[in-house]
Amino acid sequence: MTPLLSVHGITKSYGGHVGCADVAFDLYPGEVMGIVGESGSGKSTLLNCMAGHLTPDAGRVVFDTRMDGPRDTVTMSEPERRMLSRTDWAFVHQHARDGLRMGVSAGGNVGERLMAVGARHYGEIRNKATDWLERVEVDPARVDDRPTTFSGGMQQRLQIARNLVTGPRLVFMDEPTGGLDVSVQARLLDLLRGLVRDMGLSAIIVTHDLAVVRLLADRLMVMKSGHVVEAGLTDQVLDDPQHAYTQLLVSSVLQV
Amino acid sequence: MYVAVKGGERAIENAHAWLAEERRGNTDIAELSIAQIREQLKLAVNRVMAEGSLYDPDLAALAIKQARGDLIEAIFLIRAYRTTLPRFGTSRPVDTAAMACDRRISATFKDLPGGQILGPTFDYTHRLLDFKLAADGEIPDAPLREPEPGDVPHVTEFLNREGLIEDAPNDETPPPDLTREPLEMPADRALRLQALTRADEGFALGLAYSTQRGYARNHAFVGELRIGTVPVEMEIPELGFAIEIGEVTLTECETVNQFTGSKTEPAQFTRGYGLVFGQTERKAISMALVDRALRWEELGEDFEGAPAQDAEFVLYHADNIQATGFLEHIKLPHYVDFQSELELVRKLRREAEASQLQEAAE
Amino acid sequence: MNAYNFAYLDEQTKRMIRRAILKGLAIPGYQVPFASREMPMPYGWGTGGVQVSAAVLTPQDTLKVIDQGADDTTNAVSIRTFFERTAGVETTTQTKSATVIQTRHRIPEDPLTEGQILVYQVPIPEPLRFLEPRESETRKMHSLEEYGLMHVKLYEDISRHGHIATSYAYPVKVEGRYVMDPSPIPKFDNPKLGDMAAIQLFGAGREQRIYALPPYTQVISLDFEDHPFEASKADHPCGLCGAKDSYLDEVIIDDAGGRMFVCSDTNYCTARQAAGHKGKDAA
Q1: Dihedral angle over CA of A46, A51, A52, A58, nearest 10
Q2: For chain B, how many helices (H) and strands (E)?
Q3: Which of B259, B260, B262, B263 to mutate to test the interface with A (most CBs of A within 10 A)?
Q4: Which of A9-23, A24-38, B23-37 is predicted with the least confidence, judged by mean pLDDT?
Q5: Which residue of chain A has the CA closest to C156?
Q6: Where do the H-state alpha helices sit in A117-172?
Q7: How far is the C-alpha of A165 from the C-alpha of A111, rounded, in Å?
Q8: Subunit contact A16:B300, Cβ cutoff 8 A
Q9: Contact residues, chain C, for B11 at CB < 8 Å
């Protein structure tokens, strides 16, 4: 089976400081990979290098494209990479306002990716947007309201709807539950778990919250100072951590 | 019967005649001569030369007179004249180390070779209205001193010898010409400096000030500010060597900015640069601060989202002739567009009223 | 004015502008950067149109200048006078006998013909500008044909107002490729842009851009399948000539709010009146 995403030797540094160093892994279709570590461990740098927001100093990010099979997205042309990010890829930001157009209605936010790939029927776009609002548990009557009038949890769910509307094959998530109240987090996690299962999504989730990966991720990578110190099946890593840093991480949170 | 407004041509002619009369003012008062403006309103003349990008004090004085003292209008006159002039060639780069300095100060060293020269500055004047000037402008002669012989080396050269400041190697690439090629992004430093040297003084000042208040703060010291004359030389192909074709007064400001090092460079100071026609030091210092802020990318700094870091924002809005033209064009008739907006607003209101009526009926 | 070259600009500059025009004609709807010169009139007052006209004018040409459809508005008069002085070309107010027509905000009502050139003055050439202020970003959007955001704007209009609330400078797509700003003409004029027999040139002086539509180019106003574009105008006949097919200005005629509607194209209106057509407000 061809991996959906194959990452080789990704390295990025800032000045003398290491962002992430020599990271490699494969992600197979339908798999959810969790990347955990404390802030500054390099997990967000790694995610941004994979999603094309940062150019790595070295390494390859090979994606199995629909048309041409595996391609290195670091060296592909910008038009091709942009096309990927608005069709087969999705990116859920930690802060919903980074991933939403705050001055555009909820319907317009969800409809943008549809229009970007050629949808030209207002009624259909709107219907699809309304459907998606329902799927992410936002009242469809709010379709014409701007996200500025939404609560933090609703904004985050709207961001997810906006990303998933075109049926992407790979979703990058950067601390998707960060900055939300605990009760809101639980609801969002439930929703994400349902969507991942129903849509058979492949995803890479960066988080410092072990509860998130316990619930969503099939596999786990633990990062410290830019390096992967431990990787494996989620349960295995969390229940029987081998590396001292992982042990520290696991013991520092209440058992989940 | 309705008759559409006509006679634009006569209206324009009459407006011009009135304008000429207003410009002259009360004819009981003696008319201002170009020489008077050139000699006594020198800083206005300098600004018009700098932002008009044309070094000619007499033409700048004429423009100020014709523009009734509106300096942006005067700059506009100079620009429109300048663009019609034939171009004979390009001068050699001027050597500011060989400047005959009227003023030369450093904020980073108390004393230095070449000395500190205050020169004709407002800096330490007390800003009290001098009512004697209202009566007569007679002044005593200022004391004279022999200039020190030899070149005046740049302060940054002393720092460079120790490797304490980033190197600024000679670059022989001919700079792009903002007045002959469209401004396109990304703009390299030569192009940015070109745009800044003729940027609106107020705009440059505001941006520079914003960097000092924390919008892309870069801890600038005035390493050196110098004002004086330099010879301008031009290669004459027929002669095979360069000859001096005149001299210009310039203000040059080099700032020394804190910098903590990057991926490739150890900690050292960095440079901001300003060079402007005439005695125009507020502008030259502003230019150096903005130049330094715009260099964030090549120095590996973070983009903080500050206006002074944003080359597109700075360069596309710094030109006061472009800005004033577009700003003032909204005085022109727009009734066709307005009419279509009227139709739309009426239509939307009709529909809103109709739906309200329907709701009320239900 | 003898000190100046024919049509003010020097030949080098004209050559540079002509190259930009040719490139624009070769890539319809694409904004070609050009080194706009400072003109003796302010930026925003037609410097782009004036430079394009200066570059295409020949001594045999007959020039017409309109602003808001009219030959006698002050800025039209000022630009016409400029070319009378600097080029000495014939000028006219008749659409039919002009070879070059410089316009601000209108397309003449009489259909243009082969051999004519229509020069538009353009304030903001970038149709995406008010969605994305960065030039480097909008150029990328054009080159990658990323026009989703443009439709988001139209979508928002409909969800808020029930209609696309753009009434002038209504964006178009040229030959299925570039989204283009037709300059601030009312959307009533948009259908005339496509398949036109004349050459259409667009000049933006301050923004340093030239773009063009060669004759018989496909130009489509952006819309949705279920909210199609419609050209609209005041629902009246012209008060002076009775025309029902022309774009109308609304004129307030007394302080009791009385108003009448008259053709914005003054040449069209006077020609109709001369041919005996009469509206209800005509003497």
Answers
A1: 40
A2: 13, 4
A3: B263
A4: A9-23
A5: A108
A6: 122-135, 152-164
A7: 8
A8: no
A9: 74
C-beta of residue A246 within 8 angstroms of C-beta of residue A239: no
Chain A nearest-CA distance from B166, in A, is 16
Q: How many alpha carbons lie under 13 Å from residue C48 in its C-beta half-sphere?
A: 33
DSSP state of B259: -
In this prediction, residues B325-344 reach a mean pLDDT of 87
Q: Alpha-carbon torsion B337, C126, B181, B187, what sign?
A: positive
Cβ-based neighbours of B137, under 8 Å, separated by 6 or more: none
Q: How far is C277 from chain A (nearest CA, A)?
A: 43
Nearest to C136 by CA among A116, B290, A98, B313: B313
Which residue in the set C38, C67, C75 is minimally distant from B83, CB to CB? C38
The pLDDT of C264-273, averaged and rounded, is 95
Nearest residue in chain A measured CA to CA from B264? A15
Hey, of A12, A14, A98, which one would you mutate to test binding to chain B, going by the most B CBs within 10 A of its CB?
A14
Q: How far apart are CA C33 and CA B214, in angstroms?
A: 35
Cβ of C144 and A116 within 8 Å? no
A14 contacts in chain B (CB < 8 Å): 263
- For residue C214, give the nearest of C35, C14, C59, C29 by alpha carbon: C29
Give the number of A-C residue pairs with CB atoms closer than 8 Å. 54
Going B4 to B10 to B16 to B18, the CA torsion angle's sign is negative
Mutate: best of C11, C36, C38, partner B, most B CBs <10 A: C38
**Residue A22 CB-density burial (10 A; 0-12 exposed, 13-18 middle, 19+ buried):** middle
Asked if the model's pLDDT at residue A122 lies above 50, the reply is yes
Map residue C263 onto helix, strand or coil: strand
**What pLDDT does residue B265 have?**
65
Size (chain A), residues: 256
Q: Which residues of C are catalytic?
A: 29, 238, 241, 263, 269
Q: List the one residue out of C77, C57, C58 whose CA is nearest residue C67.
A: C77
Burial class (CB in 10 A: 0-12, 13-18, 19+), C110: middle
Asked if A148 is an interface residue toward chain C (Cβ–Cβ < 8 A), one would say no
Model confidence pLDDT, tens digit, residues B244-298: 999 999 999 999 987 766 656 677 888 999 999 999 999 999 999 999 999 998 8
Q: Kindly determine whether residue C159 and residue A143, on different chains, have CB atoms separated by under 8 Å.
A: yes
Please judge whether C68 and B8 are an interchain contact, meaning their C-beta atoms are less than 8 angstroms apart.
no
Partner-chain contact C143 A79, CB within 8 Å: yes
Chain C: list its partners (3+ Cβ pairs within 8 Å). Answer: A, B
User: Distance from CA of residue C80 to its chain's centroid?
Assistant: 16
Distance of CA C199 to the CA centre of its chain: 12
Predicted confidence (pLDDT) per residue in C5-62, tens digit? 899 998 989 999 999 999 999 999 999 999 999 888 888 889 999 999 999 999 999 9
Considering only CA atoms, which of B22, B172, B12, A12 is closest in space to residue C41? Answer: B12
Cα separations (Å) of B172 from B182, B232, B241, B271, C134?
Answer: 22, 18, 18, 19, 31
CB distance from C151 to chain A under 8 Å? yes
pLDDT digits (tens, 9 = 90+) for A210-236: 888 998 999 999 999 999 999 999 999
Based on DSSP, count helices (H) and strands (E) in chain C, helices before strands.
7, 12
Where do runs of H (alpha helix) occur along chain C? 11-26, 47-56, 74-87, 135-143, 148-161, 190-193, 266-274
Quick check: C122 and C31 in contact, CB under 8 A?
Answer: no
